DNA sequence: CACTATTTGTTCAGCGATTGAATTATTTGG
DNA sequence: CCAAATAATTCAATCGCTGAACAAATAGTG
């Protein structure tokens, strides 16, 4: 890993078309309203002739379709609007978590075309068993997608833990997994999707990362850089910089739960002391609210807290204020370091956002140097608990949009 | 600022050559030993014919020269090694700090060809006055460069503060600057260099950012991602990810000095409490070591502390241990968040590294989840106090290497 | 209703850059 | 001295973009 900046592969003759396919498709995807070929030519600086040729490739590859006459006023031949095809490739998103499995299918345009959640406590089951159930769920999702005329172009699996490049789950504490080689365990099943352009048929990634991508995907007009915090039993963060997920040197970025917020404070199971998780993790909040022994399923605990807080329970309000302050201390550090202007409260934090937001904002305005010039926005996530599954499917779709050549080569 | 990922400009016909110029030049720059045209063809996948054509452009543009016969063994026509030209374009690096001005010139190959430091307390002077002195220093640097056959292709100025896109210094607390429009103040002087490819003749950037780039530049075989910490009166950090500087949404990333390390601890001039700067900043270390009133020049304070620590002064050792622990707490949070595997102690921390390193490492191993699998390296910076000036010059050189077409168009 | 202005999208010759094979250049080894 | 081997160049072919001309389709105008 030496420092060879920008060493992209050489640009061969055909790469030109590959790159322009991506450029044009990216513009179509990012546009507010269906652009015409002429619009695209003006935006990109390419000739109308070139854009026409590129668009023709995209249309025959079923990535783009012509929309109804665009609402363009004025004289002249009416433009034909271009939109992402709703019946071409789609992404399969899977999620495996402590007490549920989920599968969903998202089409190119970003619409969720299929969604199933299977509730079950997975901790007693072996990884192989859990994955077998997941394959079953995925099979049904694929059947539904096929029935709708969609073709799955890849799959991504969200796991609540650290995943290495090979797709092995190195550590998923709440699931009780350690060094689980997901791809080889899945090899006994028929492949979920075909490999496209060298990308394996199933990509495994961290839940917090994919949830952040889901948020990016669900709100195309939102900011291009933000911090997405998933508050579950552990606290994970997905860092989106300039529209792309930042994964860190080894893909293990975002462990915000173990940022120290009180250096010699409560001992943490990670071995350190005073980690954020001990103050703003789900268990810590429940304990502070006097609900320690309630043993609620992970995904209902947040809803329950929100309900109690809404009815004005004093100890719950106090617990949330304390958690929000701890969260704010950690977030202030992150914002100082990365200069982000948006923080999204996701996962279990989303329903609690009304109570967490004020203390988080207070700490930010106290501690962030640049907050005076440009304020930091703190808002709840748009997607709910299934953000990771949707984000996983969206990551597949996004890969097609940023590199359409692979799909086109496959589709013929 | 909407989320339009990877919306690079379209790829026009001529971009092909532009991109391949960058690819080939980048390989030559990154190579361990002078590569031949055939090596480059094999590495990049381009044809030997194409590589020859590209290399010819680079040679006539004075970016590359043929080295002495390469030490290649075996039969066949001997290869002609290609190296970065030492007599073509060069970068001018400038630095303005509390008690000195610096100018240096770095050639394409990365050698420092000129270096001047002018010591003077700049706080009493107006920004315009300080900049006038800097222009004088820069003029002499340029004269020296010209005498050596070099052509300045751009300049960069390092400032200890926050700089916006336009080059205005929004806030440089230790210099006492606020909203200083550097480019327009410099407009009264003749331009230091010509504009190349739309980049203004002088780029203003944060000192910590440029120092990190200097480190990247000084150690080409080092890691591609690291955190570089400049410990001066304030504490700044430069974040290098994958060989590129990460600047944040607005270019104000790296304010590590105000990460909370003891949330309700000592009040900080930023308005917060318990900021790292209050525990590991130069003033804090001096105070803890019982040297508060010494009023040392900023750049000798570190040397003095190192000297005292080397001779075993107990209170200095204690102060450094305490500072190192605070630094370690903050760094652990950063490493958890960004998953970096290398931390470089730069600026005033470099000479103190022998004493700071152990407590920093201790906090990291306590608090970083992934430290067990892949250890985090903490090491002193290679460059000394002038890292920022060298890094500034290096940033100019780096821009030429990553985008040679601009220079070639200018050179004709 | 005919006519013009206007904008969109396509067609086509031209051109620049890459390609692949053939050719030349230069050295080692027998 | 000759064959083998490797490096670099030459050159016709090809691929994709360019620019201009052209066809298509509509709104406005008298």
Class from helix and strand fractions of chain A = alpha/beta
> Helical content of chain A, roughly?
25-40%
Number of helices of chain A: 13
- Rg of chain A over CA atoms, rounded to whole Å, is 23 Å
Question: What is the CATH T-level topology of the largest domain in chain A?
Answer: Nucleotidyltransferase, domain 5
Low-confidence stretches of chain A: 1-7
Coarse shape of chain A: globular
How are the strands of the largest sheet of chain A arranged?
5-4-3-6-10
From the structure provided, what is the oligomeric state, counting identical versus distinct chains? homodimer
Instruction: Please state the second-level CATH architecture of the largest domain in chain A.
Output: 2-Layer Sandwich
Biggest sheet overview of chain A: 5 strands, mixed
User: What is the element string of chain A, with H for helices and E for strands?
Assistant: HHHEEEEEHEEEEHEHEEEHHHHEHEHH
The N- to C-terminal Cα distance of chain A equals: 36 Å
Largest interface: A-B, 86 and 86 residues
Overall pLDDT level of chain A: 90
**What's the structural domain tally of chain A?**
3
């Amino acid at each position: 890993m030496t420092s060879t900046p920008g060493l992209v592969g050489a640009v061969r003759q055909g790469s030109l078309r590959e790159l322009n396919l991506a450029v044009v498709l990216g513009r179509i995807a990012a546009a507010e309203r269906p652009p015409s070929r002429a619009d695209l030519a003006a935006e990109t600086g390419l000739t109308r002739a070139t854009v026409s040729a590129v668009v023709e490739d995209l249309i025959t590859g079923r990535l783009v379709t012509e929309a109804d006459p665009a609402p363009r006023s004025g004289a002249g031949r009416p433009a034909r609007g271009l939109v992402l095809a709703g019946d071409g490739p789609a992404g399969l998103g899977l999620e495996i978590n402590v007490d549920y499995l989920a599968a969903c299918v998202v089409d190119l345009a970003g619409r969720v075309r299929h969604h199933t959640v299977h509730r079950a406590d997975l901790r007693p089951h072996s990884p192989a068993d859990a994955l077998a159930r997941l394959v079953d769920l995925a099979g049904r999702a694929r059947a539904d997608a096929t029935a709708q005329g969609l073709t799955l172009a890849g799959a991504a699996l969200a796991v609540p833990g650290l995943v290495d490049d090979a797709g092995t789950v190195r550590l998923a504490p709440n699931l009780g997994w350690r060094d689980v080689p997901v791809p080889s365990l899945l090899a006994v099943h028929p492949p979920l999707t075909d490999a496209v352009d060298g990308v394996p048929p199933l990509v495994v990634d961290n839940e917090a990362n994919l949830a952040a991508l889901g948020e990016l995907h669900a709100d195309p007009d939102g900011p291009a850089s933000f911090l997405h915090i998933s508050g579950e039993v552990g606290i994970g963060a997905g860092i989106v910089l300039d529209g792309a997920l930042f994964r860190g040197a080894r893909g293990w970025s975002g462990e915000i739960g173990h940022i120290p917020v009180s250096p010699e404070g409560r001992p943490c199971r990670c071995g350190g002391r005073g980690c954020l998780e001990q103050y703003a993790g789900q268990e810590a909040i429940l304990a502070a609210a006097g609900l320690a022994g309630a043993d609620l399923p992970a995904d209902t605990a947040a809803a329950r807290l929100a309900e109690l807080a809404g009815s004005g329970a004093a100890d719950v309000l106090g617990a949330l204020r304390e958690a929000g302050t701890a969260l704010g201390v950690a977030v202030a550090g992150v914002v100082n370091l990365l200069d982000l202007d948006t923080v999204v409260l996701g996962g279990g934090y989303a329903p609690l956002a009304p109570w967490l937001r004020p203390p988080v904002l207070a700490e930010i305005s106290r501690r962030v140097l640049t907050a005076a010039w440009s304020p930091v926005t703190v808002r709840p996530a748009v997607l709910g608990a299934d953000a990771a599954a949707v984000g996983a499917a969206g990551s597949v779709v996004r890969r097609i949009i940023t590199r359409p050549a692979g799909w086109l080569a496959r589709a013929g």
